[in-house]
């Protein structure tokens, strides 16, 4: 059951957005029991344990079988997280991580997700897959109270990287999203990725970046406020949210989550697929010192990738993918190229690349030395 505070919050949110909520109620109350059952008894099943971002669970790049039912389980976890040294967020998460874990399947596979909302939570939650068809992306069929679980199955009919997020109705939707409830599902073509000429292309590793904008209130003295639970944080957070000016723009949940000791790693000569998700705002990733060799800017793998991009654009509410082969060793910075958000608000990741320097690509002809001119 919902707590009294959570019920009041949900009720207030629903009253504030009747059109959207009525649509959600109409879709959610639809009785699907009379629909002809899908006979999938002949399909094999495979189960994947989800990895903690920026890692991604093991998967095939080229499908070795026909379509399968791919099973996942995710727990919704409400918890406080530290966003920066002086800032905490009452977060709502898929599986305890921000972003939510990436799921990988192949086109025409069936995704079967068990979604669980532990009784220790205070809020209703659901999941809207941008990769799915109908029922508000599954959101209208997955709304669960604390202490409930649901199982949703959908056919992955479109290839690409797609956002998923919580969408419980009305102003609860943006609040849950900017509190951490978003992630990515990658639907690979069965034959794998292809370059602009239609030739097969593979990657050596995936780096999964989830970009989040957070809106943490401050008190009268200018210090970030801290709350006992998500419900208590809502009124003050809503006031900051509605000004559309984030206090933090971060990769993978907090400032510095992917820098310093937490920096990502790669090797010279490796092809790395960067998958970038932003469920709420537009963003523009850039790899300082590198490029997007092949970029699926809209995230859709049957579209011809763009070539040699310096910066690419990810629309709010979507995921994109970029493939780069690292040619030089050293430290690379992967940033949101709104440099204010990268340097001042937290949207920066580092990649440490091992290898041997190639002077043909870049050479320091003269090291810094005295200059006597005026």
TrEMBL record:
Domain Plastocyanin-like: 82-191, 207-357
This protein's UniProt keywords: Copper, FAD, Flavoprotein, Metal-binding, Nitrate assimilation, Oxidoreductase, Periplasm, Repeat, Signal
Signal peptide: 1-23
Major subcellular location class: periplasm
GO BP field: denitrification pathway; nitrate assimilation
Keyword Repeat in record: yes
Residue numbers binding Cu cation: 125, 130, 165-166, 176, 181, 337
Pathway: Nitrogen metabolism; nitrate reduction (denitrification); dinitrogen from nitrate: step 2/4
Catalyzed reaction equations: nitric oxide + Fe(III)-[cytochrome c] + H2O = Fe(II)-[cytochrome c] + nitrite + 2 H(+)
Subcellular location(s) of the protein: Periplasm
Subunit organization: Homotrimer.
Name used for this protein in its record: Copper-containing nitrite reductase
Encoding gene (name): nirK
């Amino acid at each position: 059951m919902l707590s009294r505070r959570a019920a009041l919050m949900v009720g207030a949110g629903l009253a504030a957005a009747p059109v959207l909520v009525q649509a959600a109620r109409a879709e959610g109350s639809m009785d699907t029991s009379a629909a002809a059952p899908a006979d999938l008894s002949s399909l094999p099943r495979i189960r994947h344990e989800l990895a903690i971002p920026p890692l991604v669970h093991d998967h095939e790049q080229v499908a070795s079988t026909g379509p399968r039912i791919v099973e996942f389980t995710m727990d919704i976890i409400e918890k406080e997280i530290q966003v920066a040294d002086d800032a905490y967020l009452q977060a709502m998460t898929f599986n305890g991580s921000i972003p939510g874990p990436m799921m990988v399947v192949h086109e025409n596979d069936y995704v079967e997700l068990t979604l669980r909302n532990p009784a220790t939570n205070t809020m209703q939650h659901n999941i809207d897959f941008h990769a799915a068809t109908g029922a508000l992306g599954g959101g209208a069929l997955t709304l669960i109270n604390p202490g409930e679980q649901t199982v949703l199955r959908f056919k992955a009919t479109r290839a690409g990287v797609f956002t998923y997020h919580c969408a419980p109705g009305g102003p609860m939707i943006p609040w849950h999203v900017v509190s951490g409830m978003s992630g990515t599902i990658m639907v690979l073509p069965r034959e794998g990725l292809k370059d602009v000429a239609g030739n097969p292309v593979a990657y050596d590793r995936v780096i999964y970046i989830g970009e989040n904008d957070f809106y943490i209130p401050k008190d009268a003295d200018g210090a970030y406020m801290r709350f006992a639970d998500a419900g208590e944080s809502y009124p003050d957070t809503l006031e900051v949210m509605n000004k559309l000016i984030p206090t933090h723009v971060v990769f993978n949940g907090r400032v510095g989550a992917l820098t310093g000791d937490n920096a990502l790693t790669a090797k010279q000569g490796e092809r790395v697929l960067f998958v970038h998700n932003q469920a709420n705002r537009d963003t523009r990733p850039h790899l300082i010192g590198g490029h997007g060799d092949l970029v699926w800017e809209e995230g859709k793998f049957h579209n011809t990738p763009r070539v040699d991009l310096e910066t690419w654009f990810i629309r709010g509410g979507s995921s994109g993918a970029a493939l780069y082969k690292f040619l030089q060793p050293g430290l690379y910075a992967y940033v949101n190229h709104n440099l204010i958000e990268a340097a001042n608000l937290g949207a920066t990741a580092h990649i440490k690349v091992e290898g041997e320097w190639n002077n043909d690509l870049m050479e320091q002809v003269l090291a810094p030395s005295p200059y006597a001119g005026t």
